[in-house]
Amino acid sequence: xxxxxxxxxxxxxxxxxxxxxxxxxxxxxxxxxxxxxxxxxxxxxxxxxxxxxxxxxxxxxxxxxxxxxxxxxxxxxxxxxxxxxxxxxxxxxxxxxxxxxxxxxxxxxxxxxxxxxxxxxxxxxxxxxxxxxxxxxxxxxxxxxxxxxxxxxxxxxxxxxxxxxxxxxxxxxxxxxxxxxxxxxxxxxxxxxxxxxxxxxxxxxxxxxxxxxxx
Length: 215
Ligand code: SF4
Ligand code: SF4
Prior knowledge:
Elements: E1 2-6, H1 9-15, E2 21-25, H2 30-33, H3 39-51, E3 55-60, H4 68-74, H5 76-79, E4 85-88, H6 92-101, E5 106-108, E6 110-120, E7 123-128, H7 144-147, H8 174-184
Parallel strand pairs: 2-3, 2-4, 4-5
Antiparallel strand pairs: 1-6, 6-7
The structure holds iron/sulfur cluster (SF4) (2 copies).
């Protein structure tokens, strides 16, 4: 899930300076689960904007704000609403998808934080940095790129203390976790295996996946 957090209100209002009529778009997927872009948040945003003198001329909640065809369909009503700008309560992906589909300024109400695991309602943990070349098979299913503060992929930096990371002692050292997991799995030999350089060419931006292309 893509984890988002609300931007400070002052920041959003600053972007909307001079705007009198505005539309609000949420997202029925990740942003709803993050309590940043569902129906309650759309209503709260509407009230906030009205309190600051703006007229909210339309609200939309696409099932997924990162889905081009859904957004295209669901933003039709906004195109003729008289809105001068759109406030989008989705992630950066969803906000750009809206901006691609509507010839109005689109302003993000959220900051996009990370790709995360839902631990329980309202609690999210960063788990993957989408490197494009997954090495979880050699690290016991624990991602050192995400869980190590230095993203070290060939072992620890040596700075850990009592199993905690030297950069942020609130966090466990990723490589201590990896070591323990590999021991549990009977795979500690993997720590001594020579691996080819990780390489980050698979993460050169922007990336595109096209399942229709011939292999
Ligand atoms: S190795 Fe790369 S793809 Fe695999 S979990 Fe870590 S960041 Fe994600
Ligand atoms: S202490 Fe562990 S998690 Fe922290 S930077 Fe060093 S190797 Fe990475």
